Amino acid sequence: MTEQTNTSNPNAKTPSPALLQDSFGRHVTYLRVSVTDRCDFRCTYCMSEQMKFLPKKDVLSFEELASIVDVFVKRGVTKLRLTGGEPLVRKDITKLIDKFSGHLKTKSLKELTLTTNGSQLSKYASHLVDAGMERINVSLDTLDAEKFHKITRRGNLETVLNGIEAAKNAGLRIKINMVAMNGFNDQEIVPMVRWAHGQGYDLTLIEEMPLGEIANDRTQSFLALRDVRDNLAQQFSLEKIGLSTGGPARYVRVKETGGRIGFITPMSHNFCESCNRVRLTCTGKLYLCLGKEDCIDLRDPLREGGEAGLNAALDEAMRIKPKGHDFDQKRMTPAVGRHMSVTGG
Ligand code: SAM
Ligand code: SF4
Predict the structure, then answer these.
(1) Using a 6 Å CB cutoff, which residues line ligand 1?
(2) Does 9 reside within a domain?
């Protein structure tokens, strides 16, 4: 492992571990942690109805997850997102959030955030604010209660809307994540823009990715966001803005509403050249690309080698991080076997 001088104290004897940089020169500064692969919903594009979850005995403890995150932070990760499955259904999740938020207090982390389906937000919103979160992503694919129940297979729209409202009232900035699906919510994108912006929320549209086996045929539901954007441009004046939130979305501002729309286009536009992130599962696997199987185990290195073991594993991870995914919208059969709920988004 290469070492760099400790810049905070030039006389210090102990060198800091090297920042995370992959073999293509990209710096990894963003870690997504899937704290559980379990979920109270079964969104049809994300999971199968009879989803098999990871064995509970393999799930890392909060102490183990925190030890791994400590090492990432020491090596230059400044943004941490909790995801899942549904992160807020993991038992005692506030204890883990509090552990992570220690890095905000020391200013080692610039941002701690969360992606959630919103079902538990009424319960946890104020705790998230107390822990230092400033903004969160909430997934919402439709504002029609019946369709919401259908796509989530068990969710209740009112509960989620109340959760989003509670988050807003607690002071969180909100970005709505909407997976755009042909024949399901393609006609709801304009109303969703108006609703989200009317509430003061950003909206991010996401292309469906072929991750894991599901019941539906993804070739039927796939909707290319370049077409959606063309349609939106007929209804609104879209102004390109250079905003970057450290993730893969490209943003425009809607002149009429003043709000922002983000486009996440893994299928129709490859943004891998600017990839700055890796994904940790709740069992300690580090996935290096959402659309590839390349991963490295961190659980055994942690248990057997502690911090030194983890540092060596992270060096190897940087060596093997792939250049990019090769999703192809004409081939919507699973690019990888694991579902999105294993690595989160
Ligand atoms: N349960 C939380 C939620 O739904 O926000 C966090 C995990 S979920 C896997 C993260 C995001 O991935 C959600 O916005 C969801 O809509 C999106 N997602 C799930 N499966 C997807 C797929 N196959 N293609 C694109 N996005 C997907
Ligand atoms: Fe659960 Fe989120 Fe997947 Fe829906 S998208 S099933 S809420 S993990």
Answers:
(1) 39, 45-46, 83-84, 86, 115-117, 139, 177, 179, 206, 208-209, 211, 340-341, 344-345
(2) no
